[in-house]
């Protein structure tokens, strides 16, 4: 793991220092605090921190160097101030003299070799992952949850996590996963860990305690190739993942689609087939496509972009579209371009705004007369 701040190109070839952390058991929380403090300590000066992590799992964050990390910066005084962060001891010095001029230096070539080795082990964690693999998510809001890979492509995957009352689809890079395909089917719960593994070897009830958590009503059932019973008409049930947002994310991240109107056509087709839940109006669809294109694609290839207007300016008018353009794809879809909000007295939202503007104008004129 590498943390960087400021113009790090100034650090090329510069020697590193060893920074001692208080405990190997609190490395992750300490590094979180260091990351939050960097901006205030270094300001405009660059800093690079290398944390040689070699093992990640449930509540496991182990380093090759126990409780030592590598740091370097153009501002040595700022490096010394890192000890003000809770969990950080100080720079390692010769003979434990604690004198700044005796701080131990480490050659860049040696550290770069460690970085290459750490990267190799990082990518090896995902070896063998494929559709159907049982995996653990290592970072993010759903960290430590376990699930099954449903879709895979372009270095990213969608993992289905089956919870007690629902199942969620989590999109994440494949390198953010730990392959747990060796885990038997009867232990594949979202909270799999050492305790579940212990249940498997216990006598008595054992795994019957977690059997009900292996599936739930929202998990996709396995159906035969041919159904002998006729389809029963009725309302279609939608989960949280059968939404416009989930479909747009899949089209951008997995199917590599970046043309807004091509994405819109896929969304309209899914809405017509009732595969996803219909939104209130097509303006919502427009906003979802625009926002996700900006966040998931354009900001990654050009971090300087701040809004969709800049996308159109930099990459061409083919990225310009509107809710009306989506409506023209299929005028018989039955979803309005915008919704008219009617309040309790029967007036529309537009009428209320018009009346409010008239009152404000009248108040302004009265004030001028005085």
Task: Describe what this molecule looks like in 3D.
By secondary structure, the chain is of the alpha+beta class. The chain has 3 domains: 2-124, Alpha-Beta Plaits; 134-213, SH3 type barrels, CATH 2.30.30; 244-329, no CATH class. It is 34% helix and 17% strand. The chain has helices at 27-42, 76-80, 108-124, 194-201, 244-253, 260-272, 282-301, 308-315, 323-329, 349-369, and strands at residues 2-5, 16-21, 47-50, 53-57, 60-63, 68-73, 88-91, 105-106, 134-137, 146-153, 156-162, 167-173, 177-179. Strands 1, 2, 3, 6, 7 and 8 form a 6-stranded antiparallel sheet that branches. A 5-stranded antiparallel sheet has the order 12-11-10-9-13, with helices on one face. Helix 6 (260-272) packs antiparallel against helix 7. The chain is globular.
CATH fold topology of the largest domain: Alpha-Beta Plaits
Structural class assignment: alpha+beta
Strand content: 15-25%
Q: Encode the helix/strand succession as letters.
A: EEHEEEEHEEHEEEEEHHHHHHH
* CA-CA gap between termini: 68 Å
Helix percent reads: 25-40%
The figure for the number of domains is 3
CATH architecture of the largest domain: 2-Layer Sandwich
Morphology call: globular
What is the C-alpha radius of gyration, as a whole number of Å? 28 Å
Q: Which CATH class of the largest domain applies here?
A: Alpha Beta
Enumerate the spans where pLDDT stays under 50 for 5 or more consecutive residues: 218-240
How many strands appear in the DSSP assignment?
Answer: 13
Largest sheet: 6 strands, antiparallel
CATH homologous superfamily of the largest domain - what is it? NusG, N-terminal domain
Q: What is the overall number of helices?
A: 10
Mean pLDDT: 81
């Amino acid at each position: 793991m590498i943390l960087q701040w400021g113009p790090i190109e100034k650090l090329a070839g510069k020697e590193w220092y060893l920074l001692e952390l208080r405990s190997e058991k609190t490395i992750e929380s300490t590094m979180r605090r260091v990351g939050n403090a960097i901006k205030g300590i270094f300001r405009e000066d660059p800093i690079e921190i290398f944390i040689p992590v070699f093992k990640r799992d449930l509540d496991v964050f182990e380093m090759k160097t126990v409780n030592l990390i590598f740091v370097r910066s153009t501002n040595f005084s700022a490096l010394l101030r890192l000890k003000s962060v809770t969990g950080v001891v100080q720079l390692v010095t010769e003979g434990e003299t604690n004198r700044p001029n005796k701080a131990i230096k480490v050659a860049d070539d040696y550290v770069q070799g460690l970085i290459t080795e750490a990267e190799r082990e990082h990518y090896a964690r995902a070896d063998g992952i494929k559709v159907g693999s049982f995996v653990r998510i290592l970072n993010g809001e759903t960290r430590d949850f376990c699930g099954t890979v449903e879709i895979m492509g372009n270095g990213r995957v969608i993992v289905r996590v089956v919870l007690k009352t629902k199942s969620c689809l989590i999109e994440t890079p494949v390198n953010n996963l730990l392959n747990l395909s060796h885990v038997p089917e009867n232990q594949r719960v979202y909270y799999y860990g050492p305790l579940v593994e212990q249940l498997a070897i216990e006598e008595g009830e054992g795994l019957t305690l977690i059997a009900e958590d292996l599936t739930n009503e929202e998990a996709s059932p396995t159906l035969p190739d041919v159904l002998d019973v006729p389809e029963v008409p009725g309302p279609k049930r939608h989960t949280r993942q059968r939404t416009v947002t989930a479909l747009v994310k899949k089209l951008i991240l997995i199917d590599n689609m970046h043309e807004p109107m091509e994405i819109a056509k896929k969304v309209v087709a899914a809405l017509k087939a009732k595969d996803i839940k219909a939104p209130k109006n097509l303006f919502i669809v427009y906003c979802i496509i625009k926002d996700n294109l900006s966040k998931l694609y354009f900001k990654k290839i050009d971090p300087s972009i701040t809004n969709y207007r800049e996308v159109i300016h930099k990459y061409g008018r083919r990225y310009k579209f509107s809710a009306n353009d989506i409506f023209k794809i299929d005028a018989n879809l039955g979803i309005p371009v915008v919704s008219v909000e009617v309040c309790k007295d029967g007036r529309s939202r537009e009428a209320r705004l018009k009346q409010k503007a008239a009152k404000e104008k009248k108040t302004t004129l009265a004030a001028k007369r005085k």
